[in-house]
Amino acid sequence: MLVTVIVPVYNVEKYLGKCVESIIGQTHQNTEIILVDDGSKDQSGMMCDAIGRTDSRIRVIHQKNMGLSGARNSALDIMQGDAVTFVDSDDTLDTNMIETLVKDMEEYDADIVECQFYEVFGDRVDVFDYLGDTKVYNAEQALLIDLGSKGGSIAACGKLYRRHIFAEHRFEAGRLGEDAFAIIGSLRQANRIVIDHRPMYYYYHRNNSITTEGFSEKTLDEIEGAKRNLEIVEKEFPKAMPGAMFRYDWSYLWVLDRILLGGQWRENKHLKDIMRHIRKHFFRIIKCPYFTRNRKIGAAVASISPGIYRKIVVRTWSRKWR
């Protein structure tokens, strides 16, 4: 099986080499690697060309900046593989990830195969919740798992898709958290989804400043994406509603964190609406099995005092890098 590996590239000269090395070194060698230089302003574009000259499997696209979705879409338009996977240019893969996902896809006649993630914070590596055996699901069942974050993920990465999944489906351009807008569009094209609960994808959290992790108007895309998914799930995949509702409430807490991590948080014009939602649906959040204990405690503190909750958010963020 020829697998296309799509890597959007934008200002990642520090990380690109390690990322591509982990793809070139895969035990499954029948790959087409498409590096999309999305208008990089550093040396990333030149690095793509240099790396491309070292391996005939690598194709390089240079384009004006169109964002992550635009870069992925450009590569999808020219891909030749029987299946496709996406890798962010500052992440890496286990050596046998593609081989394992291909075997799962062929063994179970699956349209999409998902694996677990390693989360990397500096020198510390955490593993997403591990559920056990590899299993086959339909779209509704997989949505419940992916939206509910219990052994799944809405991320486009860490998944292998048969070519037909993207015959018409594309990523929505200009969005923050674009994967939230794409997850249903991908899964609704699939009859059989396999979730392999072995971690194989390394997702790197970069130690940016608290200010750059703060709020912008684009941050609200997270809520819009979750709301759109909630509406679709209610109509088409009702058994996945607990996961979609969790994701919707989670998006408000996530946006609140971004507001509180930024400066002048008290003056943020969206703070009142965010707090209104959290307080109105507090008991739903507390009763939801998908929220962690710490998240529930955080929601309780936030509903009483955003200022106190802010101290928790800042301290938690700092501890991740110790």
Automatic annotation (TrEMBL):
Residues 4-168 form the Glycosyltransferase 2-like domain. InterPro entries: Glyco_trans_2-like (IPR001173), Nucleotide-diphossugar_trans (IPR029044). Keywords: Glycosyltransferase, Transferase. GO terms for molecular function: glycosyltransferase activity. CDD domains: Glyco_tranf_GTA_type (cd00761). The keyword DNA repair does not apply. Pfam families: Glycos_transf_2 (PF00535). PANTHER family: GLYCOSYLTRANSFERASE, GLYCOSYLTRANSFERASE EPSH-RELATED. This is Glycosyltransferase involved in cell wall biosynthesis. It comes from Hungatella effluvii.
